[in-house]
Each structure stands twice: as structure tokens, then as C-alpha cells.
Amino acid sequence: MIDLHIGEGFSAVVEYMKDHFGVFFDAVSATISFVADNLTEFFNWLPPTLVFGILAIVALWRVGWLFAGFVLVGLFVVQGMDLWSESMDTLGLVVAATLAALGIGLPIGVIMAKSNILQAVVRPVLDFMQTLPAFVYLIPAVIFFGTGRVPGTIATVIFSMPPAVRLVNLGIRQVPTENVEAGRAFGCNALQLLFKVELPLALPSIMAGINQTIMLALSMVVIASMIGAGGLGDPVLAGIQQLRLGTGFEGGLGVVILAIILDRLTQSFALPGRGRESALTRLKRWFTRDRTGERHS
Hints:
single chain, mainly alpha, 16 helices, flat, disordered C terminus
């Protein structure tokens, strides 16, 4: 049987990059460390009551009073499990990874939508990124950046970026031709057509991509804790390694609560018309509908 030595070739490439691109990796590490550390410190600096209030108000504005109640109860449960600091660490890591993934993925998605050649080149890469086991991302991250929050954030960026690229590309390609032609007829140049016609019409698809990026980043939290990324992954990892079932369950419950809150809030921004009416108007409409139901019954 022929031995292709793919693993040895990969190791040789990694060693070559470490020897010749050390300055580049140091710059990436410093940038990621600056963003992730400052975001984490900022979220930990915020008083819990202020976070409760802000998230409850946004939930009431974008989704409804029932979800606002869930947000308050969920955050109370997280604080009651003494996992507030870990939750804020996770939130900082997720926000930093999501910003980096969108900063790289959105322009690539836009260019893919404009170039069939680039799409043919990038799609297999995205397929490879999405089918590669998540643990494998940790190997090059540790080799190039060591252990800690920086390699955890970088592995999370690579793992969570493909949906943003795919859905931006898909959303722009699905913009009706009539709208594009109308924009051109009114004298739009390429940039005006992109920012005033295509991106607004593709917004639901783009928001779905952002939502999926955030969810994948959260799902990577527990795995990234294996290389010292910290956050809610630590209690889950401790529960597995030391058979402390309660500790592991509490960490997993914290991840679930954070995931539901971020998922519903980001989904609400993909729905046109949500949030345009005030909470008071919604409350009036809800009571009116309720009284109508009583009359029919």
C-alpha cells in the first residue's frame, strides 16, 4: 500500500510557517489578545444589574415580554450558580470571535457573490472547514499561538466563519434581478448598488449567517477550554475530568441559557418590522386580542 505521508507534509508546512512567518503570528496574537482581553474585562466590569436591565429591555423591544421574563430568570439562574464571571468571559470570547469572523467572512462572501471563479475556489475550502472535526482546529492554534484565550479565540473564528461567508454569498445572489436592474436604471454605480440595493435586500440572509456564526462560536467554547480559553467551558471540562456531574451540568446549563438569549435576539434582527412598534403598543394589541378571544368563546 502506498503511504502518502500527508501528516508529515502537514508538519513540514507548519514548521516552515513557524520559522518564516513568526512576526505575522505575533501580530495576529497581539491583536486578538487586545480585543478579546478588553472585551472580557469590559463585560466583567459591568454591574450584573445593568446587564440584567439592558438585556431585558432589548428582549422586550425585539421579541416580547415573555422572552424578557426568560432573560431575567435565565441570568438570575446563571448568577445563582456562581457562574457570572465565567459567563462574561464566554461572552467576551464569543463577541471577539464573532467580530473577527464577520470582519473576514463578510467581504469574502460579497466578493464570492460577484465572482463565480472565486466561489468555485472558496466553496471547497468552506466544505473542508465545516467537515473537519472541531478538535483538529486546536492543533495548529496551539502550535502557532500556544495555550490560552488567544488560540481559543482563533480556533473559534476559523470554526464559526463558514456560515457567514455562505449566507452572505447566497443572500446577494438571491436578490431579484428586477431590483438590480432598477438600481442601475436610476444610475447607481457598483458600490451604490451593493450598499443601497443588494445588501439591504440580502439582510435576512446575512443576519441568519451572523446568527449561525454566534451559535457555532458558543458551541466551540467547551472545546476551546481544553487549551485554556476559560469561560463556561472550564466547569464543563472539570465535570468531565473529575466526574463532578453537578459542576458539569451547571456549566452546560449556563452555555444553553447564553445561547438561547443570543439566538433569539440575533434572530429578531433578521425579521423585518420587529421592534418598530413600542412595547406599549404590543401590550395593547395583546390585551385586545385576548378580549376578542373571550368574546368568541
